[in-house]
Amino acid sequence: MKTQDMTPGRQGLKPTKEQLYEWLDKQVLCVIATNGDGGYPNAATVGFSQTRALQFVIITDKDSRKAKNITANKQVAVTVTNENDRYTLQLEGEARQLTWDEFDQFSEHHYAKLPFSLPFKDIPGQTPFLITPTHMRFSDVSVRPWELTEVPV
Q1: pTM score of the predicted model
Q2: Which residues of the chain have pLDDT under 70?
Q3: Answer CATH for 17-151 from 2.130.10.10, 2.30.110.10, 2.40.50.100, 3.40.50.1780
Q4: Which of 5, 9, 89, 96 could be bridged to 80 by S-S, CB 3.0 to 4.6 A?
C-alpha cells in the first residue's frame, strides 16, 4: 500500500467528470446495494464498466438476489473504493435491465475492461443492467480535512 501525504492543508483530488471516468476505468469491482425482501438491504461485489456519461454496467445471473431485487425496486446504491489512492465514489441511482441488443453499445468497452468476464457471457441466464446515477459523491480521504466532491449528474 502506498504511503499518503497526510499533511494538513494539502489539497485533495476534486475530479472532473473526465478524471473520474479515467479513475473508474482503472477500477474493476464495486459494491452494489439493492432493496431486498422485507426491506432488508442486500450488498454484493460485482465487476463493472462505465460509460462516458458515468452510467454503470453490470452483468449478473437473472436468478441472483440483486437481479430479483432490482426487478422489484430499481433504486440502488453503488460504492467504488481504491484503498491505495484512498478514493471512494458513492452513488445512488436507478438500475434497469438491458436487452442484449441494448447491451451491444456497451459491450466492447465492458469486455475490454473486464476480459475475465468473457467466459460468462454465453452462460444462460446472464443479464446486463445499466445503472444511471441520481446522486454521486467522490471522497479523497488521503488528505486532512477530507476532500468531498459532489459530482453533477
Answers
A1: 0.92
A2: 1-9
A3: 2.30.110.10
A4: 89
Query: 3-state class of 53 per DSSP?
Result: coil
Q: What is the pLDDT of residue 1?
A: 37
The x, y and z cell numbers of residue 8, run together, are 494538513
How far, in Å, are 15, 85, 109, 149 from residue 139 at the CA level? 10, 10, 26, 6
First-residue to last-residue Cα distance in the chain: 32
Instruction: Give dist(CA 114, CA 103) in Å, integer.
Output: 15
Nearest in space to 139 (alpha carbons), one of 68, 91, 95, 73: 91
Cell 467504488, located at residue: 80
Q: Quick check: 110 and 71 in contact, CB under 8 A? A: no
The closest alpha carbon to 76, from 140, 149, 150, 135, belongs to: 135
Separation between Cα atoms, residue 129 and residue 124, nearest integer Å? 15
